[in-house]
Amino acid sequence: MKNKVVLITGGSRGIGAATALQAAAAGWDVLLSFHTDQTAADAVVLQITEMGRHAMAIQADMGCEEQIRRLFAVADVQFGRLDALVNNAGIVDTAQTLAEFSSQRLERMFRINTIGAFLCAREAVLRMSTANGGHGGAIVNVSSIAARLGAPRQYVDYAASKGAVDVMTLGLAKEVAAEGIRVNAVRPGLIETDIHASGGQPDRVQRLAAGVPMKRGGTALEVANAIVWLISDESPYTTGSLIEISGGNL
Q1: Rounded CA gap, 125 and 131, in Å?
Q2: pLDDT tens string 157-196
């Protein structure tokens, strides 16, 4: 019997990389996508193969439907099955008020964070649904507590893009519950990853940690552990859930 296969978008760094390594440690084979950092992606693949698991990294822009289709085609050819999808890839932008947003910024944000997640979920459902001859599976969307807090004067657009992913999680979970697919989301809070630097705030975790009830930022591993649980057979009755991993920042 073949090992189960998980596809992780944005799997070269941060939460995606931590999830890839934890999934491999739990016995999964891993296909991960990356956008630009081939070196980081190759390093993750090497660590997974050293665990005795099969792994590949494929360059794919989550804002491009053609590249998303190609990514899933690789899963078909190279792995022969798909058991889980982790919709992790996402972007932030520099801190601005909504009054400063350009249409280009908004289009890029929603194309990658929201439309890309929808398209990946579509491709996963087409392969995993028992209604299509599949054997079921799990989808985990990586959202954010920004979807609930709104991220005022920082990135309301990012928060809104993740809010849309939350709603997709709830609706899709109900659509495919009888087709053997579970759909959940994690909503990380202030987590120590490179995404803050990409938004021009490399010190954001250190600066804001005192406002978190636990008085610290979280780690990518702490989020990854929840994701791997959600795709595993240890959570067979969990679907349509939005799990907050925020150190009590409610």
Answers
A1: 10
A2: 999 999 999 999 999 999 999 999 999 999 999 888 766 4
Query: Is there a catalytic annotation at residue 237?
Result: no
Mapping DSSP to helix (H, G, I), strand (E, B) and coil, where does residue 125 land?
Answer: helix
Which of helix, strand or coil describes residue 57? strand
Neighbours of 80 (CB within 10 A): 10
- List pLDDT tens digits, range 80-105: 999 999 999 999 999 999 999 999 99
What CATH number matches the domain at 5-245, 3.40.50.720, 3.40.50.300, 3.40.50.360, 3.90.1170.50?
3.40.50.720
d(CA 16, CA 245): 15
Give the predicted TM-score (pTM) of the model.
Answer: 0.94
CA atoms within 13 A on the CB side of 217: 15
Q: What is the mean pLDDT of the chain?
A: 94
- For the chain, what percent of residues have pLDDT higher than 70? 95
Q: Is 172 exposed, middle or buried (0-12, 13-18, 19+ CB in 10 A)?
A: buried
Residues sharing a CB contact under 8 Å with residue 177, sequence separation 6 or more, in sequence order: 239, 240
Q: Which of 59, 86, 79 is nearest to 70 (CA)?
A: 59
Residue in 44, 145, 158, 239 annotated catalytic:
158
Strands 55-59 and 242-245 come out as: unpaired
Domain parsing of the chain, residue ranges? 5-245
DSSP state of 58: E
